[in-house]
Structures are given as C-alpha cells and as structure tokens.
Amino acid sequence: DFAEIINAEKQLVMLEEMDMRGWNVGSWIMYARASRKYQWIDYMAAFHGDGTVMGFADGHMEYWYWQDKDTLYASFNDQFFLNDQGNEDWLRVRNVYRSLRSENDVPELMNP
C-alpha cells in the first residue's frame, strides 16, 4: 500500500545494477545499518556516463553522478562486498535506501 510509505519522494524503489554473476540479475542490496557503515554488497551500474538512474516511490526519477572514484572502480571491475570507508556515494544511496514503513528501523539520515 503506497499510503504506508514514509517520505515517498526520498524512498528508493529502483536503480540500475550491472551484475555479471547472472543468478543475481534483477536484485540489489546494500548494508544500511550503522554497524556496517560504508560497506557495499552489490555495486551500481554506470551505464550513463559516470552515474546511474534512480527511481523513487513518488514516481520521479533522478540521474545520480557518482562522486567517489571507488564507486566507478567497483562498477567497472565487478567488485562485491566492498568496504569503502568515507565513500560519499554510499552515504547518499544509503539515505534513500531504507525501510518503507518505519522511521525507526533504519534512521532516515546518516551523517559521515
């Protein structure tokens, strides 16, 4: 039920992924809790220059240019389970990748 989504304009529902493993096609996940800060599980695609398109629960789309060179490196070199301390792209994605229903499950924003 879309009415249950908190802050739909800030809730990620779609992103482009490039997963060469095959079995994981169509899914994407990241660590979102503070105890795993800056740890990627999957990386994002960079099909459109040096960024990707993100879709949000309110129906709008945004192109995000990746700021951290390590994000691009991971995308172009099939890097999984990457621990990348200080990655500003991780922080930005994490702040829109959170619970659809609960502000308490994963805090809305995490600071560097």
Gap between N and C termini: 32 Å
Oligomer: single chain
Ranges where pLDDT stays below 50 over 5 or more residues in a row are none
Q: Order of strands across the biggest sheet?
A: 1-2-3
Helix fraction bin: 10-25%
Radius of gyration from CA coordinates: 14 Å
Overall average residue pLDDT? 77
Largest sheet: 3 strands, antiparallel
List the domain count as a whole number. 1
Instruction: Write down the overall geometry.
Output: globular
Q: Please trace the helix and strand order, writing H or E for each element.
A: EEEHH
Which structural class matches the secondary elements? alpha+beta
Tell how many strands the DSSP assignment holds. 3
Number of helices: 2
Strand content: 5-15%
Q: How does this structure look, described?
A:
This protein has 112 residues and is of the alpha+beta class. The chain has one domain. Helices cover 13% and strands 13% of the residues. It has two helices and three strands. It has helices at 69-76, 88-94, and strands spanning 12-15, 51-56, 61-65. A three-stranded antiparallel sheet has the order 1-2-3, with no helix packed on it. A hairpin with a 4-residue loop joins strand 2 (51-56) and strand 3 (61-65). The longest helix has 8 residues, at 69-76. The protein starts with 11 loop residues before the first strand and ends in an 18-residue tail after the last helix.
